[in-house]
Design a protein that fits this description.
By secondary structure, the chain is of the alpha+beta class. Helix content is 41%, strand content 20%. It has 12 helices and 8 strands. A hairpin with a 5-residue loop joins strand 3 (153-160) and strand 4. Helix 3 (36-43) crosses helix 4 (47-56) and helix 6 runs parallel beside helix 9.
Length: 309
């Protein structure tokens, strides 16, 4: 390949302008503030060739910012119409980036719901998202309001529940590296469902965290059955939590016993793992989760089952 110093085009330019190319280009670029493309027009070269010669001849180039500022100020020999100042557009999507940095009733609830029905995702380009999913749109809207978000709520159609009925599933997805990092600090990871563990929650806020977790993967039912030798049906209240991993249920069970919320209960394996409580423990669980509640962050259809009993 021919070296640039032996290029006939370079020699022709130097003969025409009677100045070495590296001095000529430097003067035009720095003293007259000409861009590479404008220098190329003067000497009859493509812009790419001029840029390559700048590199080969070790001629320093100005930054784009300096050119923009010069254009805005209309200084130097290059005179032309003033460029319009760039207006910084406000990002359309909003969210409280510091939401998970300070404990509160709302923060504890949303964290509990995320542990139950939330996800961290990273797309192929490395963008990081947090997601909340539920078949109850109302609770997703409440969580969105608590986060100070204006993100849209998407619909994933035809999710089947335990009765095999097709139901729409609602999803709130928020792109935020900071929220992703803060949730990661609580032990949340991508594909966490089978290995998630209980984060360190202060005693004061554990009832709100548990209510969020209950609204995500808890259950409460009232059923009746005949005892042997009895004519009247026996009415029973049962509640509990379901998870793909056993560890977090064991940890929640230990905390509830430590705080003397429940006296009994059991963990069984079936479709995942289930932590179950009977009548008296279910009543105490209801009192613990809802008695100190000040916000509207709860799922009404679950709370009302307790109250019917």
């Amino acid at each position: 390949m021919q070296q640039i110093v032996h290029s006939p085009r370079l020699t022709a330019i130097e003969e025409k302008w009677r100045t070495p190319v590296h001095q000529l280009f430097y003067y035009w670029h720095w003293d007259e503030n000409l861009k590479h493309s404008e220098i190329g027009k003067k000497v009859g070269l493509p812009r790419g060739t001029v840029t390559r010669w700048f590199h080969k001849l070790h001629i320093p180039s100005q930054s784009c910012t300096r050119f923009t500022n010069l254009n805005l100020l209309n200084t130097g020999p290059r005179k032309g119409p003033r460029a319009k100042p760039k207006v910084k557009r406000e990002f359309p999507w909003k969210v409280n980036q510091s939401f998970f940095e300070t404990w509160s009733e709302e923060m504890a609830y949303v964290l509990g719901f995320f542990v139950a029905d939330g996800n961290l995702t990273v797309n192929p380009r490395g963008s990081k998202y947090i997601e909340f999913t539920s078949c109850d749109r109302a609770i997703i809207e409440k969580i969105r309001d608590a986060l100070g978000s204006n993100h849209s709520i998407g619909v994933k159609p035809h999710e089947r529940d335990r009765t095999r009925r097709a139901k729409d599933c609602y999803r709130l997805q928020i792109g935020s590296k900071k929220l992703f990092k803060n949730l990661s600090a609580f032990g949340m990871i991508v594909r966490k469902s089978l290995i998630v563990q209980l984060p360190a929650v202060p005693h004061k806020f554990f009832c709100h965290f548990l209510r969020g977790y209950f609204d995500g993967c808890g259950h409460v039912v009232i059923y009746e059955y005949f005892r042997k030798g009895r004519r009247k049906k026996n009415r029973v209240l049962a509640s509990g939590f379901t998870s793909g991993g056993k560890k977090i249920l064991e940890q929640i069970f230990l905390v509830l016993k430590k705080y003397r919320v429940v006296a009994g209960g059991s963990i069984s394996e079936g479709d995942g793992f289930n932590l179950r409580f009977s009548i008296h423990d279910s009543r105490r669980l209801y009192t613990y989760m809802y008695s100190s509640m000040k916000s509207e962050l709860f799922l009404p259809r679950k709370k009302v089952v307790f109250e019917k009993f």
